[in-house]
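Dear H.,

Thanks for agreeing to be a second pair of eyes. The structure we're designing against is below in token form, covering all 287 positions.
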């Protein structure tokens, strides 16, 4: 099997592993902060053990900013998943490119093209549809927190981009460590059950820890276009798994809004990936 084929299959498996996080979080009876704290403690330990000879912490502003953004992403995503539907939590997080497009010119000096504004308008329109469903007070706050997940994801992306050639792993490890410090004290409110510990071990070691290494291996062997298309499996399968395993269904307007968001992100990514592919020099006959 060629490396590209293997990478495509493993990246699809990675997306499915990531998408399983919503169901696992729903099934664990524990305070959201305790869940995210334990998950991140296990993830940080897993990554530190597997990459102990390759980690190099510069503690630059960009690295620390990325760590803070990643911690915000982790904490808000778990809280949103507990308070609103898993579909809303994951799909509203995917509005992050809106904020990147708006802030990249200011923080990175990267121009936002006029065509990007159509993408921003489509994504914002899809986001508004989430709030047209009948929501409880908790569901409303869950949606608002999920928008914060998208903002945190954008901050993480901008700070990672600012690091230029730096490895993303250090910022991820620092983000998990910070999340663990903030979340573990909430265990004083109660410990997980035996089933809860099993779910947390899965979330920390596999869903967050080892899956990152799998992603890094795959992304080096795939083009941007197949990668972005394969990774859209995460927001698609997340609510499907929750519906099958937990019986939770998103509202009709949320389903329409989610479809708009996914289509906007996919269509926005395709032209850039095609341009990058066209600009790549042709391989020599011997390659």
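And this is the sequence the design step returned. I haven't edited it by hand at all.
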């Amino acid at each position: 099997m060629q490396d590209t084929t293997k990478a495509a299959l493993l990246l699809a498996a990675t997306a499915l592993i990531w998408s399983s996080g919503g169901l696992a979080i729903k099934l664990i009876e524990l305070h959201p902060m305790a869940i995210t704290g334990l998950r991140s403690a296990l993830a940080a330990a897993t990554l530190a053990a597997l990459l102990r000879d390759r980690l190099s912490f510069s503690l630059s502003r960009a690295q620390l900013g990325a760590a803070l953004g990643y911690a915000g992403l982790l904490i808000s995503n778990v809280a949103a998943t507990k308070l609103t539907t898993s579909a809303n939590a994951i799909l509203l997080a995917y509005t992050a490119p809106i904020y990147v497009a708006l802030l990249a010119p200011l923080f990175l000096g990267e121009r936002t093209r006029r065509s990007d504004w159509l993408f921003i308008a489509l994504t914002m329109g899809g986001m508004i549809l989430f709030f047209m469903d009948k929501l409880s007070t908790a569901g409303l706050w869950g949606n608002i927190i999920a928008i914060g997940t998208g903002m945190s994801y954008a901050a993480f992306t901008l700070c990672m981009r600012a690091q230029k050639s730096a490895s993303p792993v250090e910022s991820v490890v620092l983000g998990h460590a910070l999340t663990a410090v903030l979340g573990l004290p909430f265990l004083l409110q109660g410990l997980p059950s035996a089933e809860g510990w099993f779910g947390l071990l899965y979330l920390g070691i596999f869903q967050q820890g080892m899956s990152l290494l799998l992603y890094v291996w795959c992304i080096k062997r795939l083009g941007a276009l197949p990668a972005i298309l394969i990774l859209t499996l995460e927001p698609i399968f997340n609510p499907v798994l929750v519906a099958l395993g937990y019986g939770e269904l998103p509202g009709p307007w949320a389903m329409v809004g989610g479809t708009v968001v996914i289509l906007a992100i996919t269509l926005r990514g395709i032209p850039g990936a095609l341009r990058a592919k066209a600009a790549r020099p042709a391989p020599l006959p011997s390659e």
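Two observations from my side: The chain is about 75% helix and 0% strand. The first helix runs from residue 3 to 19.

Warmly,
E.
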